[in-house]
Sequence to fold (384 residues):
Amino acid sequence: MEGKEEGQGLSRRRFLCYGLGFISGFVSLALGLPVIGYFVSPALRQTKVNWTAIARAEEIPVGLPTPVQYTERAQDGWVRSEIRRSAWVLTKDGKVFTVYDPRCTHLGCAYHWDTQRNQFLCPCHDGVFDINGRVVSGPPPRPLDRLEAKVEGGMLYVGRIIRVEV
Amino acid sequence: MTTKIYDWVDERLGSKAIASAFLDRKVPRGVSWAQTLGSACLVLFIVQAVTGIFLAMNYSPSPEHAYDSVRFITEEVPFGQIVRGLHKWGASAMVVVVFLHMLRTYFMGAYKYPRELTWVVGVLLLLLVLGAGFTGYLMPWDQKAYWATAVGTNIARQAPLLGEFIFKILRGGEELGAVTLSRFYALHMLLIPGLMALLIGLHLFMVIKQGIAAPPER
Fold:
């Protein structure tokens, strides 16, 4: 039987250790990458904006804040649900729409539009907002929150909530 | 760099001696692929455990949500199809490999003195693997899962004397429903893997302590 040449470096043991390391590493990667991708995916996913149709644009009278009831389709994982919501819609020209979130920025009560005083009034603690959502008087700390709004094909759609600073 | 880390841990825990006991152990002449089946079982167990853990992050064990959560994993979670597939096929692979491991141990007489306890623990592990397969099968809560469980529990019911008793314990009552699903989930996720981890540890300890059995002379 031929004797093994004594050379530099790699002993049989070392070679087998490297080989074992490579194969284990390869298998771990092949199994681990999909699993890690699975685990990490919620952080990397862009939450797609959910546009919900709330009314036909022509139904909103110009210059008058109008209450609108609509159903939002929500998806939480595999659970689909329909949530009843409402909003106040205002347009000055029938083309550009402002949609206010219906909760008072003080403590979340439902406010309403008073046509006599031309202001939004909140019954809980007497908060008062003007037609642009700015606080006139009372405890609310910031202007009315708005919903992103767009008109497409004659339908008014709303998206995410925007906090208005100032 | 890595040698420094090994040295640091070894100074505190004697880890080199442990690693050496595992990697440098004496092995009888004539060992071949047949003797690798045990390690194959271990690798499959680890794959099942890891994929199972991540599946559990998105699975909901209630009749209202089970099916939808599985569909969500398969269709909407990135790599969900791969993770679920690994788990499902890994389960079948594990049963096959466990049986092959048992057969080769039996036919090579490796269960004989002094390895009787290793064999007994092995049989317990086999039963646990079959239990994991049976309980896991119900998780998707689809027609196949439901009826396979109905039939399986009804078969158990046929056992003399204890049949009814076992039937009700398995189902968590008379009905195959929400209680069955949560019961099976707890068994599948907690009890069975827990017991398996302990018994595998014991099984491996005994195998390493006693050494691999010499294959029979031809």
In short: Chain B touches chain A through 20 residues (CB under 8 Å). The first helix of chain B runs from residue 2 to 13. The mean pLDDT of chain B is 95. DSSP finds nine helices and no strands in chain B.
